[in-house]
Amino acid sequence: HVYNYASNRWNYHSLIQLSDAKTDESISSVVIKGDTLVVGSAYRNIDGAVAVYKLASNTWSKVHEIVPPR
């Protein structure tokens, strides 16, 4: 779940889901800076993965996914 802080309160913005996430526990880390959101999953793709999202027109869209080589 993504929230933004405005007018002295937190407001719900959107839900980010990994394409093959089975539970909320599959997301293990989140970093946000400006219009970039990075979501890490220790359980995705067996060895983990990282998805990068960009905010444009008030919508978060996945722009890249990083997975370890097999």
Task: Report the end-to-end length measured between terminal Cα atoms.
Answer: 30 Å
Main beta sheet: strand number and arrangement? 4 strands, antiparallel
The SSE string, one letter per element, is EEEEEE
Based on CA atoms alone, the radius of gyration comes out at 13 Å
Total strands: 6
Which bin fits the share of residues in helices?
under 10%
| Class of secondary structure makeup | mainly beta
Q: Tell me the number of helical segments per DSSP (H or I, 4 or more residues long).
A: 0
Structure in words:
By secondary structure, the protein is an all-beta fold. Helix content is 0%, strand content 54%. It has strands spanning 2-6, 9-14, 29-33, 36-41, 49-56, 59-66. The strands form two sheets. Strands 3-4-5-6 form a four-stranded antiparallel sheet, with no helix packed on it. The protein has a two-stranded antiparallel sheet with strand order 1-2. A hairpin with a 2-residue loop joins strand 5 (49-56) and strand 6 (59-66). It is elongated. The mean pLDDT is 82.
Question: Could you name the key traits of this structure?
Answer:
4-stranded antiparallel β-sheet, elongated, mainly beta, two-stranded antiparallel ribbon, 70 residues, 6 strands
Present the secondary structure layout.
Elements: E1 2-6, E2 9-14, E3 29-33, E4 36-41, E5 49-56, E6 59-66
Antiparallel strand pairs: 1-2, 3-4, 4-5, 5-6
